From TrEMBL:
Record keywords: Membrane, Transmembrane, Transmembrane helix
Name of protein: Competence protein
Domain Competence protein CoiA nuclease-like: 104-226
Residues passing through the membrane, by range: 36-53
InterPro entries: CoiA_nuc
One Pfam family here: CoiA_nuc
The keyword Membrane is annotated on this UniProt entry: yes
Amino acid sequence: MFRRSYQSDFGLIGPFVLSGKSCVSLHVYAAYLTSIYTFFVIFIEVIIMYAALNDADKLIYAIEVDRIEQFRCPKCLKEVKLIQKNDTSYFQHLNKKFNEINERDIHKCGKDILVRDFSELGYLDIKQEAFLSEIKQRPDIMLADNLVLEYQCAIIKTSKLKERIEGYNKLGIKSVWILGGSYLNNKILKKHLKFLSYDNNWGFYLIMLDSDKKVYQLFYQIRYVGLFNKIIYNKIEFRTDGIRELLKFKTEFKSYPPIRVDGYQINKIRNIRGVKVDKLKESFFNKHEKTVEEFLSSKILHCQKPIYSNHYWRIVCGEKPRNLEQPLLYKGMN
């Protein structure tokens, strides 16, 4: 469709100007070419963006990103996602999956399901959107004076999430966060990690509610594996009318066999460039008289806790571990 439209427009303007038979002036044709050029520039900028603003509002190149955080477009300030491939890294605008109207409907439906399910569990004095004047917050659902549920459908900044959780903590209120809407997914992504909780039975976990299908998804025993913090987990689903089964679900910790670093991962590290990465590699070589790649090629790796923002290979090579902002987890869980 794009090619046909372009040829049609060019056929009406271009040939006439070149033949000298057109009543269309040269400056109109120049404006036409400028518009075509502008279209391609915008098209390329949307598809490929090599720098974006980080949480500190500083411009950072994709190849230099070494921690998990949110990024925004320098022009429109909308959220963008980091794409990391074997030979390149760049940012890309997010596709808006849910508009505001749909999100409100999903949120209301989900809250209705939660109220019904927890009423059946014996919570008889449930309040919705109750205003807590001391912290100026309205939890989605207040099950008791010391327990609230938040059904999070809209994208929320980590700083805002932390502020809300700290507000509840100030009043001695435990907050349980269940994800839906824009966060609903069949797998765990980096954007979900800030919502992680910990349970002695489930390990690191989070819960999603698909209000349309009326299904709870429990992701449990969430861990990192490998040099680049690949997220692994176990998953089980429960119908919303089976919430008792969800809360009673017991599991045994599954031990994963250690993984030997392969050539693919070594080549990936070798191709990573950037000021911080180069400095780390140089420092490691000066200290150990061997390259990072030589050192890592003989390593056998075990699973790691999903609490770090920098890649595991960098931690192994001497970089100080940097914790993610995960306000539902206890501090010092290293």
